[in-house]
Design a protein that fits this description.
The protein is built from 14 helices and no strands. The protein has about 280 residues and is mainly alpha-helical.
Length: about 280
Amino acid sequence: MTKLHPLRFALSFMLASVLTLTLVVAASAPALATERAKLRAFLEITGFDVAIESLQQGAMAGPGLAGEAPDQFGSEWVRLAKEIFDPDEMINRALDMMEAIMPEDLVDHGAAFYASDLGQRLVAVENESQMVDDEVKYPEAEAIVSELIDDNSPRLQMFRDMSDAIGGIDNSVRSVIEIQVRYFMAAMAAGSIEGDLSEEDLRGMLASQADDIRQNVELYSMLGSAYTYRDLSDEDLAEYVSALQDPKMRQVYEILNAIQFEIMAERYERLAAALADLAPQQDI
């Protein structure tokens, strides 16, 4: 998995089809598009720029999405991941898609909330959380969650409600599987890895692991939320849940999730193909 905050910008495979359809519609309805400068400001206000840029950090660390490849290719994997997950390129790709499909009223709605006092405090803690090493974050998060369970805290349900409002666990699981399918199919086509599995067989194999993936997504979503929002009050969290459940905000996240999914999938496909030109590194 990437080091993206697992709750706020949960990936959504099902929403990728929404993106594809909307791109077609937007081509015949340019009036819906929002000017690029305003979209760039939106990325900064909401913190979505940091979420996109941090895809590079996750890829360089060798996420589980890529199987054993990071260990096999060592420093060459890191070099390729840094090059292919170039932050400026990914931001421009996000802007291209947003420019085509993001209605201005949704941009205004999302920006208005995240520009508020609470919104900016949320962005600050979410951006900060993404920069903390997992070895530091998750042990502390486990202690926080344990205490919340002992106290029967309402925050636990708030975290679940937040996740549901922006796509839910099931969509995240489907997204993980879909990105793995695209990565491994691209790798096999390029000869980067050995194997002759059909796409149907690969999907079946990954689907058999869905329960384990779901447990991991649920666990790290809860841990990430507990750590990220540890200094916010229950009242702040309740207001955040309400904002995320607003129908317009749900639409904002549908588009952002779909864009993030497509950027991530495209980059892993490119990375898989590029591995064909590398030789696995051997320990001496």
